[in-house]
Amino acid sequence: LVTSVAAVLVVLIAGIVISTIFAVGQFRARAEAMLYIQITKEADEYIRGGFFAKGPETTIREALDTASKNLEYNSKFLEEQFGPRVEALMRGALGTTYLGIGLYKEAEPHMECAHQFFRDEFGEENRGTLWIMGNLALLYQQQKRYEEAGQLYVKVLETQRRVLGEEDPGTLTAMYNLVSLYKDQERYEEAELLLVKTLEDMRRGGEAYSLMRVPIDKLASLYKDQGRYEEAGQLYVKALETARRVLGEEDPQTLTIVTAISNLGVEQYRAGAYQNALVTLTRIRRLRQTAFKQSKASDVAFIAMALHQLGRTQEAQAVLEQLRDLFEDDKQHHEQSYLQEAEQLLAGENSRIYLVWECIETERLEEARQLLGDLKPLPTQKGLEIDGGIQSVFKALAWAYCHRGKSHNRRGEYDKAIGDYETAVRGDPGYAPALNNLGWLLATCP
């Protein structure tokens, strides 16, 4: 089966190329080369889309290997009948697909052959040649052959700039690829110079143009890789100020920058930069409250945790209580993992509340309920803080039972679903989804 699929694949690619060659007729040189490389990309996408959807990776490899063998076997025939173009196109498609699934050794001969053909046939300034050259550089980069990759990336970038201009998408892609290589080599200063120059060029094109996310994200990422979180934050804040002024508060571009700043705060926290995280997340929380009249659970959770890590315990507890308030309705439950992390951190690893959350996370709901049963008579042991923690975990357990009840319901296990809904209601009598689902099942089930 795999052999037949691979054979059909090769025939299809060849058929597309051959029919196109006849169709273009008198068109040659650059126009023809552009067409060929487009076909290569389409063939590449066909291979990826078809095989990735149809089976495990071993099947993909077997199909590609068979296609490669068929290509070698038919190479002479293809060249005699159609010239070297068809083989070069198919090798480009096979090579980039091998590259895409991490089979670098298998990709190399195909890509080098395709590169040589395009370079000799159309020259190094042709888009097709540049595309193949960029993929070959990526292959070398993945193999840690950095010197060879760098030579190709630099050549592609210089050619793109000269032929297509600084602002062409292909030029920007070539620059990002070279930045990626420099990062792999820890040549941060050279990578930074490239990205800063790109941003400066964009700013000269106007404020709206300067908000292109990719170079901003890549420069911020470069700063973060070096622990330069403050500079990354300043970069995003400046972009956000421009976006709010030029595009408005609710423009998608503005919102993505808001998300980027929020993510930066989380990364700062994870890296142990608690004070920086607190500053970043507090700033973005205030912005959300001012612009959108709401807070995001993840922001509030990490603010509480950062305060706790900084020894500001009372402030941390106050923010944690605000976080709990966000979960009063069902809208924030997709972010419950942040509530759990904050609750566990502030409660401490040796607390029973910590264990209850752990049981909920691992779906040991009955064990969690037993632990809560032991805790319930002790709400005043440490005052309101424990009360809030118990109430929060009760709500989380009720949600978990309700969620499991829905799964039972979908499978037609109605008795189990009713049992879970009843447990959820006992744990949190005001939890509307559990009440509604329980009422519906009791009314409709025999």
UniProtKB/TrEMBL annotation:
InterPro entries: TPR-4, TPR-like_helical_dom_sf, TPR_rpt
GO MF term (any one): identical protein binding
Claim: Coiled coil is one of the keywords in the record: no
Secretion signal span: none
One Pfam family named in its UniProt record: TPR_4
Membrane-traversing stretches: 6-25
Protein name: MalT-like TPR region domain-containing protein
Organism from which the protein derives: marine sediment metagenome
